[in-house]
């Protein structure tokens, strides 16, 4: 399905539906009348297979206690193998009510108070929060940056691990907000450093399916024929791929038996996990019946990215990260807008709700993150506003 047909068929105006993205603008930004380009969900209805499966479940009329059926695990296993070449086993898999919840749990399960946890910045702000709010020592390592291009500073990464006696590395793969899809060489180098220094890796791979062009998502646990899989916990979900965030169902993969035992003891004693049957139903239906929808969605996202790049050529020193993965575009406005005026420019002049660079790391003020998981018309409205106001600022 083409971009225009997909948007015509699946776009929904979400105003007035208790949408965090659209109906909580006043709470988050103090202004209800902004074009919402922030939080990472989409304006597109889920695949028909998901709607049908949920209708069938509701029509059954009973919502008592449930468990995770084998069919769910089989759907996840089939998807991971067919799309990523990742051969999972059911016994490695656990369920959590979201990847962010799993990050908080992992920090509290596998580290102690005041232990050090490292992240590569700029990175999704719950990575920061789950460490600091768990009373651990947050160690940040900035990515190398050059005019929209992000690479890993391996020397600094290893040095900070050693200097701070780091116990855990929370990895974002693909990387939000930089849009990087780590190469096999980059992944192996990070994992080798962590293994050598006994640093447990928690790999957030929630954007695994949203990879573009010739780039390929490589599950971290498969690197070097699974050499590092026993030193790793992987978290992913269908929520980004199929717009299912509120279904609160994520898959956690733990190959190492001792790490699994710790996970099971923690969730049993401190946060006994109940199954969200609607989430299980929705995810299974999406993985089994949503592939055509998913392939069309990717066309929309990449079309939006290419449109933004073309439109912003008028301002050659606005640097845009190449979109290798995710549906989130990170834009560097520092050559045109004073970093202390970025909110004034973006919110009050452009009338946009965005994620600000400093949310992802203290050294990234002057950057903004834009959500491309919407229609080209909405994206174009945002970009037109940015261009109009850049002309005024730099008249």
UniProtKB/TrEMBL annotation:
CDD domains (UniProt xref): AAT_like
> Which Gene3D superfamilies is this protein grouped with?
Aspartate Aminotransferase, domain 1 (3.90.1150.10), Type I PLP-dependent aspartate aminotransferase-like (Major domain) (3.40.640.10)
One Pfam family name is: Aminotran_1_2
Cofactors demanded by this protein: pyridoxal 5'-phosphate
Q: Which domain of life is it from?
A: Bacteria
Q: List residues of the Aminotransferase class I/classII large domain.
A: 41-386
**What's the Enzyme Commission number for this chain?**
4.4.1.13
InterPro entries attached to this UniProt entry? Aminotransferase_I/II_large, C-S_lyase_PatB-like, Class-II_PLP-Dep_Aminotrans, PyrdxlP-dep_Trfase, PyrdxlP-dep_Trfase_major, PyrdxlP-dep_Trfase_small
Keywords on record: Aminotransferase, Lyase, Pyridoxal phosphate, Transferase
Q: Name one GO molecular function term.
A: transaminase activity
Family that this chain belongs to? Belongs to the class-II pyridoxal-phosphate-dependent aminotransferase family. MalY/PatB cystathionine beta-lyase subfamily.
**NCBIfam families given in the database record:** C_S_lyase_PatB (TIGR04350)
What name appears for this protein in its UniProt entry?
cysteine-S-conjugate beta-lyase
Species for this entry? Lacrimispora celerecrescens
């Amino acid at each position: 399905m083409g971009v225009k047909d997909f948007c015509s068929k699946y776009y929904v105006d979400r105003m007035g539906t208790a949408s965090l993205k659209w109906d909580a603008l006043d709470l988050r930004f103090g202004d209800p009348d902004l074009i919402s380009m922030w939080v990472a969900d989409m304006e597109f209805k889920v695949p028909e297979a998901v709607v049908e499966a949920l209708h069938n479940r509701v029509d059954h009329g009973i919502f008592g206690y449930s468990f995770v059926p084998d069919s769910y695990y089989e759907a996840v296993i089939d998807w991971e193998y067919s799309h990523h070449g990742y051969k999972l086993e059911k016994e490695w898999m656990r369920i959590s009510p979201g990847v962010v919840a799993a990050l908080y749990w992992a920090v509290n399960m596998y580290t102690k108070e005041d232990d050090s946890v490292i992240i590569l910045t700029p990175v999704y702000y719950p990575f920061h929060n789950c460490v600091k709010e768990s009373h651990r020592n947050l160690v940040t390592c900035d990515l190398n940056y050059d005019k929209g291009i992000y690479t890993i500073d391996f020397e600094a990464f290893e040095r900070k691990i050693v200097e701070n006696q780091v116990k855990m590395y929370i990895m974002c793969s693909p990387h939000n907000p930089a849009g990087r899809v780590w190469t096999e060489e980059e992944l192996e180098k990070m994992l080798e450093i962590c293994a050598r220094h006994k640093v447990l890796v928690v790999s957030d791979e929630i954007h695994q399916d949203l990879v573009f062009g010739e780039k390929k998502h490589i599950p971290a646990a498969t690197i070097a024929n699974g050499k590092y899989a026993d030193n790793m916990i992987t978290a992913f979900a269908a929520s980004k791929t199929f717009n299912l965030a509120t279904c609160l169902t994520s898959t956690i993969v733990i190959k190492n038996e001792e790490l699994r035992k710790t996970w099971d003891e923690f969730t049993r004693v401190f946060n006994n996990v109940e199954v969200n049957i609607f989430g299980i139903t929705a995810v299974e239906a999406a993985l089994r019946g949503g592939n055509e929808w998913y392939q069309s969605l990717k066309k929309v996202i990449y079309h939006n990215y290419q449109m933004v790049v073309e439109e912003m050529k008028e301002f050659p020193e606005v640097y845009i990260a190449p979109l290798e993965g995710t549906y989130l575009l990170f834009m560097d406005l520092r050559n045109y807008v004073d970093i202390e005026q970025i909110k004034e420019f973006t919110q009050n002049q452009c009338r946009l709700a965005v994620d600000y660079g400093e949310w992802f790391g203290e050294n990234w003020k002057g950057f903004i993150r834009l959500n491309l998981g919407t229609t080209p018309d909405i994206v174009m409205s945002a970009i037109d506003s940015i261009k109009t106001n850049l002309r005024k600022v730099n008249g």
